[in-house]
Write a structure and sequence with these properties.
Layout (H helix, E strand, L loop, with lengths): L10 E4 L6 H31 L6 H16 L4 H7 L6 E3 H34 L4 H4 L2 H24 L11 E2 L6 H5 L7 H35 L6 H26 L4 H26 L1 H15 L20
Parallel strand pairs: 1-3
Antiparallel strand pairs: 1-2
């Protein structure tokens, strides 16, 4: 294309989720409900873990940081999507589009690394319980957190390195409600087949490999519990099943989105599920499947309401037993 005929794209037009008024009204209340629930649920988990000394253990430290990640992730695209629902012209600046892509991949990569670390935490707790607190020391937990964020930032930076300098000289319509890397690449004025393949491999195949690795590790832990006559330990099994459910909910939409050819409406549904529902389901799953978290949340509610409950001399869970809750 002749350079004299090129024009620099300064903004992109988002087609959104639907043009139907009834569907837009439903999506507005649906998204607002689950977005606010995600904020409240994940914030409550963070406050509970910080305020309750019984939850000052590696497992709940990682869980609280997972909630922080979900707080950030659900706020990347959802607020703008909600505000755009009733707008005829939905636009986002070039810088805003790049920012959405950067933070979504950075936070997504960080969550992927953190879920892997949580699987390692469960392995140490079940297979090496006597050395659990020595291996999962506070220094190791901080290192895991820093490493997870480093991996996420590197993953996102590598993705954007090949995109920010692409020439966008005409088409600026994205058939989505947010900026996604694959949709953005298609608008470039050059052949991006190789770049499209690289992005798919980097995000899709890595997600698929990580999912299989995590599922294998959790099923190995379940088999270990049964082998060592711990199959009756319903608390440990419940904790592992909660982790498995969260892993599937996180990786499932990503794998279908990047590696499985599907209609555009299905891609939008998966993106909406990943942006709105997954951050809401994570705190719900961990709250209902963890007795320690339920008890601690009741304490927090009583403190907030100024209600005091007399001590009944119950047994307090120690950090070394946190994997059983």
């Amino acid at each position: 294309m002749n350079g004299a005929n090129q024009s620099i794209v300064s903004e992109f037009v988002l087609l959104g989720l639907s043009n139907s008024w009834k569907i837009q009204v439903f999506l507005f209340f649906f998204s607002c409900l689950f977005y606010l629930s995600s904020l409240i649920g994940n914030l409550l988990i963070v406050i509970t873990v910080i305020s309750d000394p019984d939850l000052h253990s590696p497992m709940y430290f990682l869980l609280a940081n997972l909630s922080v990640i979900d707080l950030i992730f659900c706020s990347i695209a959802t607020p703008k999507m909600i505000s755009d629902l009733f707008r005829k012209l939905k636009v986002i600046s070039f810088g805003g589009c790049i920012a959405q892509i950067f933070f979504s991949h950075a936070v997504g990569g960080t969550e992927m690394a953190l879920l892997t670390a949580m699987a390692f935490d469960r392995y140490v707790a079940i297979c090496k319980p006597l050395h659990y607190l020595a291996i999962m020391s506070p220094r190791v937990c901080i290192f895991i957190l820093v490493a997870a964020w480093t991996i996420g930032l590197i993953h996102s930076s590598v993705q954007l390195t090949f995109v920010v300098n692409l020439p966008f000289c005409g088409p600026n319509v994205l058939d989505s409600f947010y900026c996604d890397l694959l949709h953005l690449i298609k608008l470039a004025c050059i052949d991006t087949y190789k770049l499209h393949f690289m992005v798919t491999a980097n995000s899709g195949f890595i997600s698929l490999g990580a999912l299989f690795m995590l599922l294998f590790s959790y099923f190995f832990l379940l088999a270990t519990l049964k082998k060592h006559s711990l199959g009756s330990s319903s608390k440990a099994v419940s904790t592992l099943s909660a982790h498995i459910t969260v892993v599937v909910l996180f990786f499932g939409p990503l794998i279908f989105f990047y590696t499985w050819p599907s209609p555009k409406d299905m891609d939008k549904f998966l993106a909406l599920f990943d942006a709105v529902l997954t951050p809401f389901l994570n705190p719900v799953i961990y709250t209902f499947r963890s007795r320690g978290m339920r008890v601690a949340m009741r304490k927090v509610f009583r403190q907030l309401l100024g209600v005091r409950k007399p001590c009944l001399g119950g047994k307090t869970e120690s950090p070394s037993d946190s994997w059983k809750s």
